[in-house]
């Protein structure tokens, strides 16, 4: 780990090869979601790389530290997904047999019709699973503005899609 902390990229590759499998297994067994597990592992290693100097070998093993990072990222993503499902249930990934092609097109078209400032927020927050802080940095706007725009975009989508999605699902 000392070599990695000193900038040795080969050390990171070795760490990745040794720990990606166990971390993926842990996350997958918890979530039963392959894509989420892959994303969490990737995000965990990216965070490890960004914060490599915060790791202190005297406080514990690298494996435990990485699993802690992965667990926190996974919980954040799952909590965001739960919030997403409660606010906009029609954007929640459903089994393919439940979500008709017409529903997908309606949702895609409604998102595409949002004003640019709202569409970018929805795409980053819901489809790319980014935090308010990440979106704030990308769009160079305050975190409060991100939250406000998400709220207004959701309101517009609910107005436009609320009845359409419910009608097409009952068919």
Would you kindly provide a written description of the structure presented here, covering whatever features stand out?
This protein is an all-alpha fold. About 75% of the residues lie in helices and about 0% in strands. The protein has 8 helices and no strands. Helix 7 (about 130-140) crosses helix 8 (about 145-170).
Q: Any key phrases for this structure?
A:
171 residues; mainly alpha; 8 helices
Strand content: under 5%
Order of helices and strands: HHHHHHHH
Overall structural class, as computed from helix and strand content, comes to mainly alpha
Biggest sheet layout: none
Distance between the termini: 58 Å
Question: How would you briefly describe this protein structure?
Answer:
The protein is mainly alpha-helical. The protein contains eight helices and no strands.
Topology diagram in text:
Layout: H1 2-5, H2 9-31, H3 34-50, H4 62-87, H5 101-113, H6 116-127, H7 132-139, H8 143-170
